[in-house]
Specification:
The chain is mainly alpha-helical. The protein has one domain. 74% of the residues lie in helices and 0% in strands. It contains 9 helices and no strands. Helix 1 packs antiparallel against helix 2, helix 2 crosses helix 9 and helix 6 runs antiparallel to helix 7. The chain is elongated.
């Protein structure tokens, strides 16, 4: 089952990338936010992806050798935080952000706008550039005997963490390093984790 969920992360991650690219192509300026239907699809995919990633990390915990179980357990905990925060953020944006009542509030953009600075943007950065990064970094030791997997997971986590520099510098272009980590490298990393677990866990899939 580990390979199945790892592949699902890869597939949905690929769809997310295609939708994002399509949304970006519709913009007249890089300063504009991505509009609908692209934005709504991206929100839904974010919720689905985080849940699938959590399932994968639970599989990693069961796959881990006893000496690596503490790292794997920490990885699961950090991915729980990622899933809960990002699900709350994107569900709130989908259900409340588009209502007339919300749009009429004085602080609407500060709360719901996915442009810096805003509450939802800050929480999404917390989820993906901090908790997701930690989850990947703590999962890496589980695969230390599989060098390619270990390296991809490690780079994915480090780039996601590096995205926090964008907050420190107040420059969201710098934060794109984090997006490369969790949006570009993460899907193949999860697919490779799933494949490795399926092949090496006593000949049985996790």
């Amino acid at each position: 089952m580990a390979s199945l969920f790892g592949n699902l992360v890869f597939v949905f991650g690929f769809i997310y990338a295609v939708v994002t690219a399509a949304g970006l192509l519709t913009l007249e300026s890089a300063q504009q936010p991505i509009g609908n239907p692209y934005f709504t699809i991206m929100e839904i995919l974010s919720i689905m992806l985080s849940a699938l990633m959590l399932i994968c990390m639970v599989a990693v915990y069961h796959y881990a050798e006893p000496q690596n179980r503490p790292f794997a357990l920490a990885s699961v905990g950090f991915m729980v935080a990622t899933t809960v925060i990002t699900s709350c953020v994107h569900f709130a944006v989908l259900t409340l952000g588009y209502t007339e009542e919300a749009r009429s509030l004085p602080g609407y953009k500060f709360v719901f706008d996915f442009r810096w600075p805003s509450v939802v943007y800050a929480l999404d950065i917390l989820a993906w550039d901090w908790f997701f990064a930690l989850s990947m970094l703590f999962a890496a030791p589980v695969f230390k005997t599989h060098q390619k997997v270990w390296l991809l997971i490690l780079v994915c986590g480090l780039l996601s963490l590096a995205g926090l520099a964008g907050v420190v510098l107040g420059n969201m272009q710098v934060r794109n390093m984090g997006i490369i980590g969790y949006a570009v490298l993460a899907p193949p990393a999860f697919a490779l984790m799933g494949k490795t677990m399926a092949q090496t866990n006593g000949g049985q899939q996790v």
